[in-house]
Amino acid sequence: MEQSKMIIKRNLLFWGKYGIQMTAILIGFVLLYGLFFSMGESADSGFWQSANFFAVLIGIMFNYIGPISYGGAYIPMVLSFGSGRKEAAWGAQLLYAGYAVTAYLFILFTGYMSAGRMDGFKNILIAEAFVLCIAFGQICAVLQMRYGKKGIAVGIIVTVAVVMGIGAGFIMGSDLADTLTAWFQGQSGSVISMGLLIGAVVAAALYAVSLVMMLRVVSKYEVQV
């Protein structure tokens, strides 16, 4: 029992701090971009609209980058230091969860300050995008750990595609997102509910697959000291 508590505490201190660190970086970027892109606007709503846009954009992207940059780098490191294999794999999930929860709360805050209300449909889509990006990022981290340079090459290709998608979203701005959101909300309630349910099932299934892949590759990972 005492050993279990020590393991949990160790993981919270190591992995948890990196999740909070990622959220702090996100907040810094959002404040910087929000101030820059709202210059010349007298109303506070201009700042919060920009802040919410970048919080969603960067917040989603960080869920993809985190598993690759932190998970792919630190899991092999902690294994070389003698960490348990399952402990390392599940500890990384703590990092992703810590970031996802705190970043999501920050996005909800900027969204409320921007619109004066909570947009349930949009917020559910963001949550599903969070889970999907974690899953894709974790799969890339698995490829990196399993296949070395070849896996890294595949990860780079996927990352470039993701960055291009993020860049396209940046260029098109929030108008496209608002248009798509309005179109979806114009559908019947049953269609919207079914779409959100399918999205949630797909996101959860892909995350489960990525987690199983990570547990397997970690169990067979050759530690290099």
The SS-based structural class is mainly alpha
- Helical proportion? over 70%
Number of domains: 1
Main sheet summary:
none
Per DSSP, what share of the residues sits in E-state strands of 2 or more residues? under 5%
Give the ordered list of helices and strands: HHHHHH
Which word captures the global form? globular
Q: What's the number of helices?
A: 6
Note down, in words, how this protein is organized.
With 225 residues, this protein is an all-alpha fold. The chain has one domain. The chain is 89% helix and 0% strand. The chain crosses the membrane at residues 12-33, 53-73, 94-112, 124-145, 152-172, 192-215.
Descriptors:
transmembrane helix, mainly alpha, 225 residues, transmembrane, 6 helices, Membrane-spanning protein, single chain
Describe the structure in brief.
This protein is mainly alpha-helical. It is built from 6 helices and no strands.
Per-chain topology:
Elements: H1 2-37, H2 44-80, H3 85-115, H4 120-147, H5 149-185, H6 189-219
